[in-house]
Specification:
mainly alpha
Length: 165
């Protein structure tokens, strides 16, 4: 039995070898996935930073710029717990100082904590796949919830400006 030699140009796409073609597609896929997952996370961090910065200095438990430390791999697992706790504390103090009522006195702390726990558990082999899916869903729910508090802070600020003028 004779093995035939196949010319690389026959398998290639537009004269590129099959190996190069596959490598380019894999690279494109990785970049696309990173872009699709990373860009919303950047917007989430921007939103977190803005919420911290909407709080007055005396009520702010953490500087808004420190949320960017969540971009550091491995460190971000523990830092996420810290950010969620400080966001809850800042929002509680800010709402109390503005005499503004909230429908949730814990400011979605339980959802944020569940998000942080499932994110931490996502590094566990096999089990982490399920935790990653749960973390993704909780991340979206948490973002929606804290966006509501951000909107309430904006409305309160606008009302105060109108009353002062």
């Amino acid at each position: 039995m004779e093995i035939q030699n196949i010319e690389p140009e026959i398998l290639g796409f537009l004269g590129i070898g099959l190996g190069s073609f596959l490598a380019a597609n894999i690279l494109f896929f990785i970049i696309f996935i990173l872009f699709v997952l990373f860009l919303p996370y950047i917007f989430f961090l921007i939103h977190l930073s803005k919420i911290f910065n909407k709080c007055s200095v005396k009520n702010k438990k953490m500087d808004g710029g420190l949320v960017w430390l969540l971009l550091i791999p491995i460190f971000n697992i523990g830092w996420l717990f810290y950010v969620i706790i400080k966001l809850r504390d800042s929002l509680q103090d800010e709402f109390k100082s503005r005499n503004f009522e909230s429908d949730d006195p814990e400011f979605s702390f339980s959802i944020g904590l569940a998000y942080a726990i499932t994110t931490a558990c996502s590094i566990i082999p096999v089990f982490g796949i399920f935790c990653s899916l749960a973390a993704f869903i909780l991340w979206i729910v948490y973002w929606i919830k804290i966006n509501k508090y951000s909107t309430q802070l904006n409305l309160q600020t606008i009302e105060n400006d109108l009353i002062d003028n």
